[in-house]
Amino acid sequence: MNISNPACSHFPGYFIRDGCGGQSLHHRHSLRHQPVSPPLPTVVRPARLLSAATAVSPSDRVLTASTVASSLLSLEVPASPHPSVEDIFFVSPPSSSSSSFSSNFVANVFTKPHYCSHLPTPITKSHFPLIHCHSKTLSLPTNSPSSSSSSSSLNDRRTKKKKGYGGNLPSVLKSLEYSVDVEATLGSFSENLSPKEITVILREQGRWERALKVFEWFKSQEGYVPNVIHYNVVLRALGKAQRWDQLRLLWIEMAKKGVLPTNNTYSMLVDVYGKAGLVKEALLWIKHMRLRGFFPDEVTMSTVVKVLKDVGEFDMADGFYKDWCDGRVELDDLDLDSLAITAMNGSRSMPISFKHFLSTELFKTGGRNILNSSIKVFGPQKPRLTSTFNTLIDLYGKAGRLKDAAEVFANMLRSGVAMDTITFNTMIFICGSHGNLMEAESLLNKMEEKGISPDTKTYNILLSLYANVGNIDAALCCYRRIRDVGLFPDDVTHRALLGVLCSKNMVQDVEALIDEMEKSFVSVDEHSLPDIIEMYIKEGALDKANCLLQKFLMNGEPSSSICAAIMDAFAEKGHWLEAENVFYRERGVPGQRRDVIEYNVLVKAYGKGKLYDKAVSLFRGMKNHGTWPDDCTYNSLIQMFSGADLVDQARDLMDEMQEMGFKPHCQTFSAVIACYARLSQLSDAVSVYQEMLRAGVKPNEVVYGSLINGFAEYGSHEEALRYFNMMEESGLSANLVVLTSLLKSYGKVGNLEGVKTIYERMQNLEGGLDLVACNSMISLFADLGLVSEAKMAFENLREKGWADGISYVTMMYLYKDMGRIDEAFEIAEEMKLLGLLRDCVSYNKVLVCYATHGQLYECAELIHEMISKKIMPNDGTMKVLFTVLKKGGFPIEAVVQLESSLKEGKPYARQAAITSLYSLVGMHDLALKSVQTFLESEVDLDSFAYNVAIYAYGSAGEINKALNTYMKMQDKHLEPDIVTQINLVGCYGKAGMVEGVKRIFTQLRFGEIEPCESLFKAIIDGYKVCKRKDLVELVSQEMKLTLNLEENPEIESNTESENADEIGSDCEVRERN
C-alpha cells in the first residue's frame, strides 16, 4: 500500500467533548431490541459516534483552506517573511485588504474550492509523504532505541499530571490515603495547615464520603473560618456523586453561616447538574444567581453553553451566549419546561418539576437576599478565554453551522486569544467530518507552524476521518505518524484502526496489528472484540474466532453487551451453536446471572436456525436463573413463531406478555395479523387487529396491508376495500404494497374499471411503479385474459430493462394457457439466454413450457444445466421429468417404478430417473457416465437401477454391457420384473437376436410373464428391427386378443397432454405456495 497521498474511510468518528476535538472514541454495544423472525433482532456492533451535526444547509458548506489560511496569516506580525497562502494550502490567496477580511471571510468561508487531480496534496514534507508502505501486509512500527527518549518524555508528561506539593501536604495526603481514623490523622497536622492546604486536601479525596468527613472535621476545629472555596470543592464532590440530599444540606449550611456563593460556585453547580442529565435544574441555578444579583462570568457562561451543547440544545446554547454578550441573562425567553432531559447513567435523583424545584430550600437560600430589588444591568461582554472559544467552535460544528464556527475561529484570531491543541483538534474534526480533508490537513500544517504540537488525539481524529471515507493507507499512515513524532498510540488509536481493518476484512493486517500491540504489552480492547470475531466469521475462519474469544476470556470477563454483540455476530451467519457456547461460557464470578440481552440474542440465534423448541426452553428457564424476560424477549418470540406460521404459540405468548404488563409493539401485532392472513384465518386476524386498537397501539401500513391482502386473496373484495378506506381515514397514505393488494382484489372480482383506477393511482405515486407492482399488473392482465394489455406492460418493462424472471414467466404461462405455444417457447428461450434461470422455481417453469411444446431434448439439456450449476432438481422438477418420459414413449411400467422408488427414497432413484431421460433423448454419454456412477457404488441397488442401466446400455448400442448388467442383477439375486423383460427385448432386437425375442414372447404367450401392452409393443419393435414382418403380425394379433384393445390411437396422446397440463398447473401451485 502506498500511503503517500492520504485521503479517508468509513469508520468511527471522533466524539468531541468539552470542545477538545475528540477525547474518546465511543464504542457503544447496544442491542436494538427487535424481534427475532421476521425481522430478527439486530445487535448493533460497537457504534462510533460522530460529534458534528448531520444536517447542513446548502449555504453552509465547509470551511475552506484559503479562508482559514487568510485568518491566520492576516493576523500574524509581519516581522519576517511568511510563506504565501499558495505555498501553505495550494489555493489562491484571499484579498489582501484587511478591512474587507471579515466580510470576505463570512461570505466565502464555506465556498468549497475546486481541487484538480494534478494539484499536490496539502501536506508538507514533514508529514505523511515521508512514510511509504508498498506491501499489502501491515508493516507496523517497532520499539527502537530512538524511542527511549520519547518514552521518557511521555513519562514526564504523565508525572506532571499529578501535582507535586511542598511542605507537609505530601505526608498529610499519604497518611490520609492509608488511614482509617481521619480525625486522628488530621489532628497531628491541623496546626500547620493553611486555607490553601485545606483546599488541596479536600480536592485530593477520591470519594465523596471521605471529602465530607474531612470537611466536617475541619469545620469542627476552633479557629476555622468558613471558606467558599472549601464549600465549592465539597459541593462538587457531592454533585459528581449525585448525592443531591447531602448537597442540599451543605448549601443550606453555607447560607446559614453567611458564606456567599461566587461565580465559581454557580459554574460548578451548573456543571455537575448538567453532567447528571438534570439540564433544566442546571439552568435554574443561573436563574438563582441572577435573582441574587450575580451576573455569569465567562467561565459560567461557557459552562452553560457546554451543558446545552452536550444535550443537543444548540439553538438554546447559541441564544444564551448571544444574550450574555449583550449583557443580559434573564432566562425568561428560555422554555425550561420543554427540556425533556432525564437523568443519565442511572442517576439516583428523581426528575423535579420546575415549580417544585423553585420552591425548595435550594432557591430560598444562598447568596445576597435581593429578590425584590432591581437586577443590575451589565454592559456588552466579549469572551477572552481559549476554552470559551473552543466550546463555541465545537457547538457550531456539532450544530452544522459551519459559517458560525469559522466566524468564531476568526474572532479568536482577531482578539489575540491564544489557540491551543484543543482549538485545532476541534477545527480539524469539523472540516474533515464535513468532507474537506484537505482543509483538515492544512490546519495540521498550520498548527505546527504556530508552534502548537499535535497530540495523540489529533492523529486519532485524522485516522478516524480517513477511515470514514475508506482510505486505509492514510489511516495507517496516521498510526505510524503518532510514533514518528514521539507520541504513543492509545486505546482510541488501536480501537479505530482495528475497526477499519476489520470492516475491510483485512485479516493479515489485523493480526499484524494485534501482534504489535502484544509486543508493546497492550491488550485488545473488549470493544474491538466483536469486530474482529465478525471479520473471522465472514472469512469462514471459525477456529480463529473461537481461539481469539477463548484467549480473551482467559484474561477477563467481557461485559454482557460485548458478549451479546459477539453472540449476534455468530447468529447472523446461522452459527447458533457458537452463540450458544458464548452464552453458556464459564463466568468469572460463580453464580453470576446472565443479562437479559444475552438471552434475547440466543433466542434470535435459535430462531435463525429454526430451533423453536430450544428457544421456548430457554425462555421458560430464564426466571429459574434469576433473569426475567423483557418486552424484547416476548416481541422476538412472538414474531419468530408468527414468521414460522406457528400462530397458536404466538398468540399464547402475546396473551402472557400482556398479563406480565408489557405492551406488544406494533410490529408484533403486525406479525401475528400477517400470519393469520397467510393462513386464511381472517376472523382471527380481525380479532388481533381489534385487540391492538384496545391496547392503544396505532396500526401502521403493514397491518392494514396484511388485512387487505388477506381479504383480497380470499376473494372478499368488500372487506379489503373497507380496511383500505379505514387506513386512509386514519391518516395513513397507501403505498405500492397496499395498492398492489387492492389491485389484486379488483382483479379477482373482474372489476376492470377498479383495476384501471388503482393502476393510475399507483403511477401517480412518488417514484412511480416499481417492479413488483408492474409484475402484479402483468399477472392481473393475464388472469383476466387481456393478452394485449399484458404484452404492452411486459414490453414496457423490457424496454426499461426492469423485466425479471417473474415478468418472463408470467408472459410465458399466459401464452401457453392461451395456446400460443410458439410465443411461449420464444419467451422461454429468451429467459435462458438472459440468464434468468437461477433456481428450481424458474427452471421448472421453463421445463413445463418445453414439455408442453414437445421439446424433450431441450428438457434434458435444461435439467443437465441445473445439475451443472449445483441446483438439485426438486419434486416439481421430477414430476415434469416423468411427464416428459411418458411423452417420449418410455414404458409406463418403468415410469411408475421410478416414481415409486423416488417416493420411497431409495438410493440413486433421482439419478436413475434423470439417466432415463438422457437415454431417451439420445444424450448417451451423460447417461452412461451416470450409470457408471451408481453401478460402481458400494450401495445395494434395487431392480429399478439395474433396469435403467440395461436400458441406457441398450439405447447406446452397447448390448454386451447391457446383458452383463442383467447377469450381474441375477448374481445379486434380484428377479427380473416386467421392466427388465421390456428392456431385454429391446436389446435382443437391436442385436438381431431373434431367438431371444422369441423366448420372451413364448413366456408371455404361455402366461409365465404377466401380459402388458408395453411388453407386447417392445416385442413388436424387436421383430421390426429384425425385419420379421410375419412375426410382427403374429404378435399384433396376439396383443389384440390378449388385451382386448380397441383401436383408438388418440387415447394415449390425450392422456399425455392431460399429464402435461396437470404438471404445469401443479408447478404453478407449488411456486405460489
Could you explain the architecture of this structure?
This protein is mainly alpha-helical. The strands form two sheets. Strands 1-4 form a two-stranded antiparallel sheet. It is elongated. 42% of the residues are buried. The model is unreliable at 1-162, 336-359, 368-375 and 1046-1073 (pLDDT under 50). Residues 612-726 form the PROP1-like PPR domain. This is PROP1-like PPR domain-containing protein. Keywords: Repeat.
Task: Furnish the topology, listing elements before pairings.
Blueprint: E1 27-28, E2 31-32, E3 42-43, E4 47-48, H1 65-74, H2 85-89, H3 101-108, H4 148-161, H5 169-178, H6 182-187, H7 195-203, H8 208-220, H9 228-240, H10 244-256, H11 263-275, H12 279-291, H13 298-310, H14 314-325, H15 354-359, H16 361-364, H17 386-398, H18 402-414, H19 421-433, H20 437-449, H21 456-468, H22 472-484, H23 491-503, H24 507-519, H25 529-538, H26 542-555, H27 560-572, H28 576-583, H29 596-608, H30 612-621, H31 631-643, H32 647-659, H33 666-678, H34 682-694, H35 701-714, H36 717-729, H37 736-748, H38 752-764, H39 771-783, H40 787-800, H41 805-817, H42 821-833, H43 840-853, H44 856-868, H45 875-887, H46 892-904, H47 909-921, H48 924-935, H49 943-955, H50 959-971, H51 978-991, H52 994-1005, H53 1013-1025, H54 1029-1043, H55 1050-1072
Antiparallel strand pairs: 1-4, 2-3
Helix pairs in contact: 1-20, 7-8, 7-9, 8-9, 9-10, 9-11, 11-12, 11-13, 13-14, 13-17, 17-18, 17-19, 19-20, 19-21, 20-21, 21-22, 21-23, 22-23, 23-24, 23-25, 25-26, 25-27, 27-28, 27-29, 28-29, 29-30, 29-31, 30-31, 31-32, 31-33, 33-34, 33-35, 34-35, 35-36, 35-37, 36-37, 37-38, 37-39, 39-40, 39-41, ...
